[in-house]
Design goal:
alpha+beta, seven-stranded mixed β-sheet
């Protein structure tokens, strides 16, 4: 998967300075991904993911690995014929601001384009990051009802204050 890293690296000098790689997740990544995602879920800023969910959806994930350690992950989940969701997007707090999140998002978006997805959305408490990546705020009600399946698991349901953002690919 170094090819993805090389393609993304050409777009920004910050990516060239990072020692790790972006790659598709593998089975061995499930436990560190769960720990990372659920560390944010404990703070109620992300939905928790079970080991079972991660195994079932492993093909949707990219990870950023540095020195044999998973320090970030991001999934692209197709939800409709032209729409996908960016979810379970997390980077270890000590590694934020280094470009890892941008690289993970770029890899997921590129995969979406390659399989024919026309739009990607996310629900987040950090809209500024996604706006810098070309996403725009939209009304949650404008998204298809199928999108809300995961919301039932959220401790904040039905009083969610996440912000919906959308990007045309």
């Amino acid at each position: 998967m170094r090819i993805i890293h090389a393609i993304i690296s050409e777009e920004s000098n910050i990516h060239k300075q990072l020692p790790g790689i972006i790659r598709k997740a593998v089975i061995e990544d499930v436990t560190p991904m769960k720990d990372l995602i659920n560390s944010y879920a404990k703070k109620e800023i992300m939905l928790p993911r079970s080991v079972g969910e991660l195994y079932e959806n492993i093909r949707n994930f990219y990870v950023y690995e540095e020195n044999g350690e998973v320090v970030g992950c991001c999934a692209l989940q197709v939800v409709w014929e032209d729409l996908a969701e960016i979810l379970s997007f997390a980077v270890k707090p000590e590694c934020t601001g280094m470009g890892i999140g941008s690289m993970l998002l770029d890899a997921s978006i590129e995969e979406g384009k390659n399989i024919g997805v026309k739009r990607a959305f996310t629900l987040t408490y950090v809209p500024e990051f996604f706006e810098r990546q070309g996403f725009s705020k939209v009304e949650k009600a404008s998204l298809p009802h199928k999108v809300w399946v995961g919301c039932i698991k959220c401790p904040k349901f039905p009083d969610c204050n996440e912000i919906a953002l959308l990007r045309y690919l």
